[in-house]
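Readers of this paper often ask what the protein records in our data store actually look like. Such a record has a labelled line for the sequence and another for the backbone structure tokens. The tokens are whole numbers drawn from a learned vocabulary of local backbone shapes. We quote a single record here, exactly as it is kept in our systems:
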Amino acid sequence: TMRLFVDERGLRYEIDPPRSAAAVVELIERGDVRGSSFAFRSKPADESWQRDAAGRMIRRIKKFSFLGDAGPVDTPAYLGTETYVSKRALEMAAGEMRAAPDAIAEGDFVSWNSSGGTARGRIDHVMLDGTLDVPNTDFKVKATEDDPAVLITVYEKAGDGWRATDTQAGHKASTLTKIAPLPEPEGEDDERAISLKPTAGMAAAAKRGLRLHEDGKSGDGLKPETVARANRLARREEMNEAWVREMNAWFARHASDRRPGWDKPGAETPGFVAWLLWGGNAARNFAARKVAAMDREEGRAIDGTEDQAVSMEDYEGENADLSANNAALLKATEAIAAQMGMWPQEGPSGAHYMAESPFAESGMRCANCLMYEGGACEVVEGEIAPEGV
């Protein structure tokens, strides 16, 4: 993997870089590493020392008796040395750095070649079998275990960093190169007055939905982008306006899908799993509030909507509107969990959770709470029993 030559300048070496040296190849290509060094020994008869006019001791070597190594360094002993990357070495390094099928995961950042040059993004979903349909396009990617299909959110340059776009792309894993996480832009004014960061309750519902999906309870009609977005909700990644409006419309369309017992532990229905993957009750309330706020901000609000009470319609067959006080309490509780984290079940700072409520007969149980959905709470950590309090 190494070749040595003697030319008109001196010693020249070529190295075929191993996979472990891919980062060094990149440093040489960028110009961070520009010099070379080598280790040698010489016999006393093959060298001489003398002082020059400036008083410096000059060592002259006529012959090496041993050459131990040669390679690139960032601080060479001899400034006249050079290091550069040949086109062949770049191609080899790129091949070594391509993401192996078992080395990529949802949330990883990758780059790939596109018609406009090198594109970058974050992996939303990895499919090992079947066909990946890329949202809002007619493009399809065939998936295999040896070369999975990957759904990616495309990022764009923004100031001194990168930000996610609304565009998703699909590629085979063999065409992708795994890269370091893209930095967010700094010092860029946020023009959005309304925060669209998912709440802790939305994240908890999405995580539960993902676990049920992995257990095979999501049915055959689930779209890959739903799973991809659920992963983003679970990580509480900032949403955009289009996504929030789509979420609000989805819950409006599927409100009638809710049935008594659809969330029964061990017998969860595909409809319930989809509800969780979209963020559950927390997301339904979140999307309704945010869309109303965005409409008001844009001057599109319908008269009277901002004064409407939060409704429990379609919840456990009841139709009980919350009072203004309880609606405000609900909003404040969700805000605390979102900003400071969910409450633990136990401990002096916990929710004082009990798996069996002594007041269940009077209706004081988790199953009757607007923040409860299928074994999870929007604001309290861990598994929550429906008969708990």
Notes: The first strand starts at residue 2 and ends at 6. The chain has eight helices and 15 strands.
